[in-house]
Amino acid sequence: MPRTRLTSSRTALVALGAVTAAVAVGALVDVQAGVLALAAIAVVGAVTRLTLPAGKAFSVRRRYVDVSVLSAFAVALTFLALSTPLS
Length: 87
What we know:
The protein is 76% helix and 0% strand. The protein is built from three helices and no strands.
């Protein structure tokens, strides 16, 4: 399946929806759960970007940059969620 404007829009909407859901969990349920959900989204994004071909993954820059940034983001969020007293 070639990369088209429609597939890029769908991918962006899925990512936006996932982040919105994680923020809603943080606001309505528990802050720590919301931050851990954001970390999980970053992990899923890194794995997706690492495994899928360039035309099927949501890519911004080169693959190693995207995977590195998403992985660092996931590690930082996980560390903060588990080590900071959130209420």
